[in-house]
Amino acid sequence: MTSETHIEPISAAAAARRRNASREHALSLPNLLTYGRILAVPVVVACLYVGGHVWLWTAVGLFVVAAITDFFDGYLARAWQQQSPLGRMLDPIADKLLVSACLLMLASNGVIAGLSLWAAVVILCREVLVSGLREFLAELRVSVPVTKLAKYKTTAQLVAVGFLLAGPAGDELVPGVTTVGLGLLWFSALLTLYTGYDYFRAGLRHVLEDPEP
User: Fold this and answer.
1) Is 25 in a helix, a strand, or coil?
2) For residue 83, what are the contacts with CB-CB under 8 A and spacing of at least 6?
3) Mean pLDDT over all residues of the chain?
4) DSSP 9
5) How many CA atoms lie within 13 A of 181 on its CB side?
6) If we measure between CA atoms, which residue out of 89, 102, 90, 106 comes closest to residue 38?
7) What's the Enzyme Commission number for this chain (predicted)?
8) DSSP code of 4?
9) Distance (Å, rounded) from C-alpha 169 to C-alpha 60?
10) Mapped to the 3 state alphabet, what secondary structure does 148-183 carry?
11) Separation CA 139–CA 130 (nearest Å)
């Protein structure tokens, strides 16, 4: 597995063009899908909080719809040439909010327990650390693109959480749903750990470089 993370500085002119693109496409359909994914987070959490099989399946349905928008917002933005810095910023934030909130609720209701909690901790810590790195590099006008491997990581996380959200309700229909979800959670945690290392290795030279006189 090879690393393809490249973190490059951006010029002031390029930054200005990106701001204009963000304003132009703020209400484009791809960005609206991303907004919808963010708004789905508290609704899914509320369903998990209420509990009961009906609400669990409601949470699963909302989560699946939200996860599908993760594919379509990027696909449509590229197909319609509506890519913007706003969309590139909000897309991973929406994914992190959705996955992190669900992991916390799954740990709270006991679906994720024991050693599997460490997989959830790895995922949450990586997301916080990479977000901090992105914020620091943004002050240096350095771009941090999302790699293909990071996209695969997000997909693995979404699939794992989807299985775990069904939890006991899913096990009644198909035995082993929770077990499969926990296995996928560990797999996604390994991908998460690797991509986090990949980002930090690529960004470390900007963090440690001497300031210009």
Assistant:
1) coil
2) 21, 25, 77
3) 82
4) E
5) 26
6) 90
7) 2.7.8.5
8) -
9) 10
10) HHHHHHHHHHHHHHHHHHHHHHHHHHCCCHHHHHHH
11) 14
